[in-house]
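Q: Give me the 3D complex with adenosine monophosphate.
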Amino acid sequence: MVIIMLGAQGTGKGTVAGIISEHTGLVQLSTGDIFRKNIKEQTQLGIEANKYIAKGDLVPDEITVPMVVEYLDSEIVKNGVILDGFPRSLAQAEKLDKILAERGKKVDLVVNLTTPRDEIIDRILTRRVCSNPKCKTTYNLKMHPPIKEGICDKCGSELIQREDDSNEESINKRLEIYDNQTAPLVEYYRKKGILRTEEVSIRINRMGKQVASDIIKDIQEK
Ligand code: AMP
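A: Here is the predicted complex, encoded as structure tokens.
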């Protein structure tokens, strides 16, 4: 099974994907996390990708697509995958369809998360993530703070703020790129009949946890 998480930064894609992954055994593949791991380890891929990520730009397809293909072909994703952060443009979506078709697979479900823009910006600025790459639990200082300040409840590692979350210029640029390049994918997948749109907002008292549990129920009933 192949699931895609769509939605602007800060809508909770990673959180929803993480919960679905825990309950279904589908592997969560976050392109942003793979890039961040490579940046931390100073690999060639990381050094190259960081030139774009630090500015809030998309990493070019020549770098991103082969990296995704390598993961899709690896043993760990043989039972299925939740793509979190890929595709991010029509070109990437078309490439993904082709790559999957060549492997006798297809996208089964696209989960599109929507959240009011003011809530998104507030959430990104108050987001903190576990620095342990094996844990990566996400917290929110207002809505879901850790029990002990600055420390992950799950693994005890230090919590950090992503570099690209700490300045509003980069946040606004990423949201602009989302509107221009990624949002058209909603229509692309709607036409294919595989789109499921879910509003995630404090205003309607519906957060990622609940959305994830509804999706898991539907997957397990199928
Ligand atoms: P994310 O953690 O998904 O917000 O991704 C962090 C950053 O990694 C993005 O702002 C992009 O610079 C880069 N990135 C992640 N996924 C992709 C992708 N599919 N295509 C291009 N760049 C990406």
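A quick observation: The mean pLDDT is 94.
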